[in-house]
Amino acid sequence: MSIAGGYHRAVERAAAVGCQCLQLFTKNSNQWRDPDVSQEQAQTFREALRSSGLTAAISHDSYLINLASPDESLWNRSVDALAAELERADLLALDCVVVHPGAYIEGGEEAGLRRIAQALDSVHRRLPRVRTQLLLETTAGQGTNLGWRFEHLAAVLEAVRDPGRLGICFDTCHVFAAGYPIHRPRGLAEVLREFDAVVGLTKIRAVHLNDSRADFASRVDRHAHIGQGKLGADAFRRLLRDDRLAGIPMYLETPKGTNAEGRDWDAVNLELLRKLARSR
Known about the structure:
Layout: H1 7-16, E1 21-24, H2 39-52, E2 56-60, H3 72-91, E3 96-99, H4 109-126, E4 133-137, H5 150-159, E5 166-171, H6 172-178, H7 187-198, E6 204-209, E7 211-212, E8 223-224, H8 233-240, E9 250-252, H9 265-278
Parallel strand pairs: 1-2, 2-3, 3-4, 4-5, 5-6, 6-9
Antiparallel strand pairs: 7-8
């Protein structure tokens, strides 16, 4: 949800369309500039959140951050930006910050994964007392982006000094585009078993719900409305009814706007998801 007009407005917008949890950007996602968040702004947001009935709230890191970059200047800037994001999120009492692992650009996957672990360790050293947790997001695997294989996530968790401060955000579009067959009748069960064996299901702290405009295993990241992409509605029915994911907050990352009838797409997608969760 947009924070236009103040952080608390994101809470109001989420509640207005019937959300039970909230994801926001704490700043412009395509700029490096870090805003100053006053104690008054943070308190207004926290109070709005407490009175809203929302059960969870998280932020997403800037799209400019690349924790795997081989370029020392960009890597340092990315570490600084992520530390600032985590500090803002903690001030706002957000549960988690979703982090794109990064792209290695050159030098290969192993070097990129080491850089990510080093970056996360650096951020955690700077902010030893924050309660907000960082979540590595599963990615579609475009270009040299890391995190599209479960083994990438496991490698980072094994390499960091404090893996207890990290979790995973499981993105449906990304996992599908990366080549994990969650769209097939028995596919989700197989994928979750594999994830549990490689990473551990207890590490999943958030789920991004979005259909995919791109084909299975295309490694192309293109989000679609629920049931209107290559994943299809049945995939979400199975996911919503899977006990292994019960209780994990799930966040829409579908396109914004209104449909042909003038209804807010967030409300439309939520309504469909709830129908799917109740159906067999």
